[in-house]
Amino acid sequence: MDTTEPAGGPDLPPGIFPQKHLLGIEGLSAGDINALLDRAEGEILVSRQVEKKKNVLRGRTQINLFFEASTRTQSSFEIAGKRLGADVMNMSVASSSVKKGETLIDTAQTLNAMRPDILVVRHHAAGAVHLLARKVSCSVINAGDGAHEHPTQALLDALTMRRHMGDISRLTIAICGDVLHSRVARSNIILLNTLGARVRVVGPSTLMPKGIERMGVSVHTSMRDGLKDADIVMMLRLQRERMAGSFVPSVREYFRYWGLDQEKLAFAKPEALVMHPGPMNRGVEIDPEVADGPQSLIAEQVEMGVAVRMAVLEALAEHLPNY
Amino acid sequence: MPVTTPNRRLTDPARPTVFSSARVIDPARGLDAPGAVLVAEGRIIAAGPEVLNQGTPDGWEIVDCAGKIVAPGLVDMRVFIGEPGHEHRETIASASRAAAAGGVTTMITMPDTDPVIDDPALVDFVMRRARDTARVRVHPMAALTRGLKGNETVEIGLLSEAGAVAFTDGRQSVSSALVMRRSLRYARDFGALIVHHVEEPTLAAAGVVTEGEFATRLGLAGIPREAEIIMLERDMRLVALTGGRYHAAQISTSDSVEIIRAAKARGLDVTAGVSVAHLTLNELDIGTYRSFLKLSPPLRAEEDRLAVVAGLADGTIDVVVSSHDPQDVEMKRHPFAEAGSGAIGLETLLPAAMRLVHNGDLDWLRLFAVLALNPARRLGLDVGTLSPGAPAALIVVDPNLAWVVVRSQLKSHSKNTPYEEARFEGRVVRTIVGGETVFEG
Hints:
The structure holds two protein chains of two kinds.
Chain A: H1 30-48, E1 61-66, H2 72-83, E2 87-92, H3 95-99, H4 104-112, E3 118-123, H5 128-135, E4 139-145, H6 151-165, E5 172-176, H7 183-194, E6 198-202, E7 218-220, H8 223-227, E8 232-235, H9 251-258, H10 262-265, E9 273-275, H11 288-291, H12 298-317
Parallel strand pairs in A: 1-2, 1-3, 3-4, 5-6, 5-8, 6-7, 8-9
Helix pairs in contact in A: 1-6, 1-12, 2-12, 4-5, 6-7, 6-12
Chain B: E1 17-26, E2 31-40, E3 43-48, E4 61-64, E5 69-72, E6 74-79, H1 92-102, E7 104-109, H2 120-133, E8 137-140, H3 156-162, E9 167-168, H4 177-189, E10 193-196, H5 201-204, E11 209-210, H6 213-218, E12 222-223, H7 226-242, E13 245-248, H8 254-265, E14 270-275, H9 276-280, H10 302-313, E15 319-321, H11 329-332, H12 349-358, H13 364-379, E16 393-404, E17 423-433, E18 436-440
Helix pairs in contact in B: 2-3, 4-7, 7-8
């Protein structure tokens, strides 16, 4: 483990993650975050080797429990677990089987009886992962709960930024689009504030949650204001079902005013970089030209995702009982 | 159905009883003084400081209250039960045990059972079940619209005759202004009271907590306070238009208090209630997604809680309810957004409300006015007072007894209390209904 003390962080023993679970970015210190990012740097090297294998999770069972479909996050956690030597099982719980009457807690207790070491959980309801973590004896990682948090996404975004821009505390980040329904936005807002960055949210007022400014962001409704002098432009996915109805009148109007094209990207700093948590709606929130352009970090975010998830799994594994 | 024997006969109802050495509180007469209460044949004979001036009558059973409070039993205007249809959540019998333990001597039951109480025969059913199985007095409210569907007004005259004390769609709001207007107007011909849950349904639709910073941080869909305010404003216009008798079941925002105050100043026949949860808890008590604190209306910010406490103290809000709403455990084993809303409250109504007295927000007379006298008067019931001739529905309260809520010890069949492990000061030690002691603790 890298023993350099991260700038601005408290004097924690390096490498010891202070929690049994990773339920959110909320509650993590700058030191905790930097320690995870430092650890992830090492995991990038592992993933770039021919022999992409460590044995820190050898013999451990990791269950990816997804109540909401997700290809990329689930496969990212699966690869991360396997590269660390864990036995990984994917379990997709279709919402229909939940409707059959089994509650979240029933599912959790059933799985717990199979003695997994780590549960990776995604759920469509905010707080579901917290509820589950209270009912099982293993470590739990939140892979996204409703509109609440998606901590590994924020960590991988931070890792990507740090590798390209250096010290995050000097950056201005504009998070654009459907902030109201976005767990990615919330986790990023908390993480970036913890590391001392300036954070803006940009989008139509109908997609801004009330009181968001009290989470430490400035709120902008025009891309021109919101992107001015930004170092990073982070686009959020706009789900198609939000487009009909009263959030946004139409795709073409949304793209016209909030979709990221070259013209709007020019409001940001010339060297600004573009991020997107995926999956993208090309032509809705982002122009394909920008998504695939030289300023885009979108593909790299995916690689950083595996590294960060390896780092989180490894950090939590240090808490697991050793029998 | 086996006939259960509902009442443990701790006191002999045939024998007249004197509750002596008591602090007698009777808001109907503005009385708060040391004295005694005489009860015989199920009625209050006398209550006050001078009733034992002639000495204790011969042959009377004497209950020495040792300085504890004797007050009228509580009249709880908002009690959800599961009978008929959802007996696994709560029966009239189990609710009445919880009521007796909480000092609630009159329960007003909500009509959203299965079937919905929208027919005189069903009112009759509830009253017969109550007579056979309940330890406390039970009066049903009937539905305001058939099947709670919000379209057709029920038979207000026939239902009133059958014993319905008021008309409400329970936890539902009547979204059609036209239906509400006609109902208010028609009910006026019978002098019937309409009780309304004020929440504009489309604004509230997806929300589970009050909109604002707290909701945003938790990632939960919010309900704007305006959902309540808009519906209440609309209703005040309709009451003015129709001259109807109206009671807002629960209000929870500072603006709602202002609206009720203004309506009363205009002379409208309007009253308002508040749940004890909204007087003693705020949204932050939800913490990390505690689903037992998922209520309708949702818990509000502290400023709104303070405003409703002030509105209760100054007389704008008339009634405090438990909003007792048993939910089976299954409904609470889901994530917050998917969990059922509602919390039980019969046993914690008085102890939680006494916090307001201990904090200096209310005095004892006002406490028993809002918990007993006002709801009884608004519904035209002869309880809620210790006046001579009133039914002997009274409680003995130890105002200083310290205790901690333990879920498993609650009498309600469902255990979804928002006050788990709460520390309370004050508790009912004896509940008397019809002259009989139905609870002693």
